[in-house]
Amino acid sequence: MRQIPPGQEGSIEVNVNTDGYGGGKIRESVRIRTNDPNRPWIEVAVTGMVEKFAEIRPERVHLAGPAGSPLVAEVEIIPRKDLPFSIGEVKAKNGTFIKYELTERCTEGKNRCVIRVENTRSEKGFYADALYIRTDSKIRPMIPIYITGMIQ
Predict the structure, then answer these.
(1) 54-151 maps to CATH 2.60.40.10
(2) Which residues partner with 111 through β-bridges?
(3) Which of 100, 119, 127, 132 could form a disulfide with 63, with the two C-beta atoms 3.0–4.6 Å apart?
(4) Looking at the DSSP assignment, which residues form a beta bridge with residue 77?
């Protein structure tokens, strides 16, 4: 714990996890402990807009439909022009009820990546999974895509 002497100035560094807030506003609170008996804690609000790293459409995949019918979705990832990246690998958290394939890479002048996701569950039920997309970006080395399936 670092101390700032009475009457002196100092700075406090705050790191905020902005995952999932791209394109939106974030608000977090920070509690600062003091040696003032009348005010032992000070709460400071940290707010700001979070810039999008890339356009991801859709941000979450929902595969729903009757058992035995083909349920497929495509996820389009469009890097910002000022923050280009390429995709190294795509891995599923579980992969039990989905098949996936990187069908288009955002390299060699292409401005988008496409991942095809397909349901493989043949019986009724619900599942949740995630795809983890590894990038060569220092800003965002991993992009999660959350997937739910509702087979009727």
Answers:
(1) yes
(2) none
(3) 119
(4) 56, 113
Amino acid identity for residue 56 in this structure: I
Please write the tens of the pLDDT for every residue from 129-142: 999 999 999 988 99
Burial (Cβ within 10 Å: 0-12, 13-18, ≥19) of residue 112: middle
Please state the pTM of the whole predicted model. 0.77
pLDDT tens-digit series, residues 20-60: 788 889 999 999 888 889 999 999 998 999 888 899 999 99
Which residues, including other chains, have CB under 8 Å from residue 52's CB and lie 6 or more apart? Answer: 22, 23, 80
First to last CA, the chain: 55
Please check whether residue 29 is in contact with residue 45, taking contact to mean a CB–CB distance below 8 angstroms. yes
Beta strands, E only, the chain: 25-33, 41-49, 54-57, 60-65, 72-79, 87-92, 98-104, 113-119, 125-135, 142-151
Count other C-beta atoms under 10 Å from residue 1's C-beta. 3
